[in-house]
Amino acid sequence: MPPTDPTELFDVCDEHDRVIGQAPRGEVHARGWLHRAVSIFVFNSRGQLLLHRRSSQKDEYPLRITSSASGHLDAGEDYANAAVRELNEELGLTAALEFVAAFKASPDSANEHTHLYIARTDAEPVPDPDEIAELEWASPDEVKRRIANNPDDFTPPFRLLFDWYMQSPAAPR
């Protein structure tokens, strides 16, 4: 399935992340309906975060930098299974995932209730070219500097999650 298939079926949620219906991706995005997503921050043993620049084919935020892996939940899918699936589909990686936080849907999160996971691995990622234009490793401090200097190079959902992460106890000190 292409990464921007407008017929892909999503669960539509209320403000409390309760499923209230289902609709195709294109309609969910066009109407700004609340839906679900996962985001994974992959760190290597040097403490660097894997970033990816989204493909030019993406329907939202093409060519912007975002989380190591991220994506929508399929209709009826749970967050943990979606995180495992997205990590494998986008990066060809299998790694232990640690749930770290849940975020309520908002305009800054692209109307997505989002669960953030962390993976730690030195395995070589194999990016899906339909999803990812390029990959790079960067220290959290470097990412913070780059966001401050050029925030529009990053997706708003990534900026929201990364800002939270840098203020959390899980962040490097």
Shape descriptor: globular
Report the order of strands and helices. Answer: EEHEEEEHEEEHH
Beta-strand portion reads 25-35%
User: If strands are numbered along the chain, what order do they take across the biggest sheet?
Assistant: 6-3-8-7
Mean pLDDT: 93
Let me know the largest β-sheet.
4 strands, mixed
Total strands: the figure is 9
Total count of helical runs of at least 4 residues: 4
Which regions are unreliable across 5 or more consecutive residues at pLDDT < 50? none
Rounded to an integer, what's the Rg over CA atoms? Answer: 15 Å
List keywords for this structure.
three-stranded antiparallel beta sheet, alpha+beta, 4 helices, four-stranded mixed beta sheet, single chain
